[in-house]
Write a structure and sequence with these properties.
The chain has 98 residues and is mainly alpha-helical. It has one domain (20-98). Helices cover 77% and strands 0% of the residues. It has three helices and no strands. The protein has helices at 2-32, 38-62, 67-85. Helix 1 packs antiparallel against helix 2 and helix 1 (2-32) runs parallel beside helix 3. It is flat and about 50 Å long.
């Protein structure tokens, strides 16, 4: 049982890290989109995000991760996504996604 909890926590942390990198790449791409050459940068960063997802799946398969670790990774990714999209704008107090 302790092993399953450890796998879940490790997966949560790793999933959150991958989620943070993924969303940081997305944030940079969206911020640079209106600039000159922004479309090309957006496409390059989209390929980078796709490579990150493929890397995460490859690591999960090659390391033969337990199901709790994979579920933890998905939960960590989703948690970071929810936190990032629901973050309040400190100046207006409104959610950034509205």
């Amino acid at each position: 049982m302790i092993s399953n909890i450890g796998n879940l926590v490790a997966g949560l942390v790793i999933g959150a890290a991958f989620g943070g990198v993924y969303l940081a790449l997305l944030w940079v791409a969206v911020r640079r989109l209106p600039a000159s050459g922004g479309g090309l940068l957006f496409m390059l960063l989209a390929l980078s995000r796709a490579a990150l997802v493929i890397l995460a799946l490859w690591l999960a398969i090659s390391l033969d991760l337990a199901v709790p670790a994979m579920l933890g990774a998905v939960a960590g990714f989703v948690a970071i996504r929810v936190i990032a999209t629901r973050a309040a704008d400190l100046q207006t107090g409104h959610a950034t996604w509205k």
